[in-house]
Amino acid sequence: MERSIKAMRHIGVAAIVAAIVFSAGCSRSSSPDGSSSEGSGSNGWTTNGTRGTLAKKNVPIKATSDWVDYNPEATYPKSVTSTDTITMADGTKLAATIVLPADASGKAVDHPVPTVLTITGYNKAAGTYVPAIGGANTYLVSHGYAHVIVDERGTGASDGQWEAFGATEQGDYKPTIRWVATQPFCNGNIGLYGASLLAITAVLSAAQQDPAVKAMFPIVPMGDAYRDIVFNGGQVNVGFIPLWLGLVTALGVLDPNIVLDPATGLQQELDRVLSAVTNFQVPTILNAVVGDPDTAFDGDFWASRSPIEQAGKIQIPTFIVGGLQDIFQRGEPMLYEALKNHTPTKLLIGPWTHVDAAMGANLPLDGVPVLDHITLQWFDQYVKGMNVGANKLPNVTQYVYGEGHYVTASDWPHPQAKAQRLFLRGDKSLSLTAPTADEATNFALQQPVSGICSASTSQWTAGLLGLLPLSCFKDNTLAEALDVHYETPAMTEDYYFNGPIAADIWIATTGTDAGLSVRVDDVFGSTVTPISNGLLTASMRAVDETRSRKLDGQRIQPWHPFTQEAVLPVTSGTPVLMPVEIFPTSAMIKAGHKLRISVGASDFPHGLPPLPNLVNGLIGGLTIYSDAAHPSSVVLPVVPVTALK
């Protein structure tokens, strides 16, 4: 090891950084075995599979034009609101609110108009005060659209029991669409719209393939229920899931029927609370935490609730909005990828947490208009059938951390990306050079609560905790206090990467299971700015290579089965390879800054291993290897800086 460190010193800091930057900028990239791949990179990607599909060669789509701000004059200054019910085949009645455009005298349109449909689980009555959770979009209404908002069964003023996108709820979507399409106010053309839960119902509704649905605009939708949000790396997301289930339950209890019809409303209130405690919300959380196999492992329960599994059925033009710090950071670009080759699809990703993304915070910026203007342009083009240029909008627009601006690209994943592997060396450096046989190991304490105050905590509480004026929500110094840090020297040139990142970390644990947290940071002086992160439980480390994404032949997004059958043994003191999926991002490490990979045992409350795994690895230590036999490394999708535009 000493000889290796001396050799690195002789090479010099500047030379190492120059080698990294030079490799990133050329069309040739090195593989771990020393081979190389050449070309533009446009054919270097494969897709990431799903439960029902294998990885396949990525087919990039072509470039389009620049942003324009579409904001025609409103034609309807007022609106008229009414309510109705939609009866399902089993007799369950769903509550609907209909908002129609009206003239200055308050008279509603007397002819059929295109209609926006939103299906919410957050109680449309509450949406009156917080439009993002189920209120009418008054901007769209003022431009000639009716807007229908429907409470899912078991929420708001609707009958029944809520089970979070279960089969019965999904079975309600097409009858709901049919009802809207046949109403006198609707001209038979429908656009699906909403944020978060409302975006998920939009995507699942689009998969019903009703001919009346012409387009959709989902803001922060989920892709894979298990991998995106509930069990990142096989660990329970105790930051967001209890918060979300509690929100749905609390808003469901705020039923307007309690005032309008006390006898019926009171019984409905009691039924909702009882259902939450005994039927779905509370049992789901408890089953996840205690490691119930039907919940803690991937299977039909999660597959049926994952929109990406139904993406092949979606044939309508789709505009997806996401966030680099969103709870669905992983799924949004992957939904775009699953749709782009068979229907017009666009992707906008901002520097947003979940709440910020729902509102399109800080837009307009860098030519990107406010979300309402983009939505109107999309629906005018594909729901009204007007030629307003929505088809020519940039295919992909992403905010780039470090650069501080939105940039456009012809596609995602980025067509010019090349795989570059950096090794975690024994001296805690990051290097293009593979480690030697005698390099040092490093040690991290095995405990489950690192990251309590971190950017990750802000992200996985939907951005709500991040509103507190604490520096640790923007700087990872405190969150990584117990981690091992591997850093490049200060960059001599800007270093840009875009897409998913793979961390292949060799560890041994003193326990019989372990959690592993890998964070990616931008370090400048004493400031540690978070970029992205990943989690993995050691016993859940199995990889399905047929579904894993590759770039230039290197695995850059592992696909873990997370099934009970795929569990692998963990023997105390025995090295195992941990292929950690780090969620997609877009970042620039500016000249003078350092790239850091921080490795530790936990990222709480983002992830907490189910109880059996937690007990097996609760106290002890992680040994992180950095030698020729166990070459820990990361693979980044490096893009030439010249690609920024």
TrEMBL record:
Q: Which GO terms describe its molecular function?
A: dipeptidyl-peptidase activity
Regions crossing the membrane: none
Q: This protein's superkingdom?
A: Bacteria
Q: Which Pfam families match?
A: Peptidase_S15 (PF02129), PepX_C (PF08530)
Answer yes or no on keyword Repeat: no
UniProt keyword Hydrolase, yes or no: yes
Region (Disordered) residue spans: 29-53
Please name the SMART domains in this protein's record: PepX_C (SM00939)
Going by the UniProt record, its keywords in alphabetical order are: Hydrolase
Pinpoint the Xaa-Pro dipeptidyl-peptidase C-terminal domain residues.
376-635
Which stretches are tagged as biased composition: Low complexity?
A: 29-44
Q: Do you know which PANTHER family this protein is assigned to?
A: COCE_NOND FAMILY, PUTATIVE (AFU_ORTHOLOGUE AFUA_7G00600)-RELATED (PTHR43056:SF10), PEPTIDASE S9 PROLYL OLIGOPEPTIDASE (PTHR43056)
Q: NCBIfam families given for it?
A: CocE_NonD (TIGR00976)
* Protein name from the UniProt record: Peptidase S15
Which organism does this record belong to? Stenotrophobium rhamnosiphilum
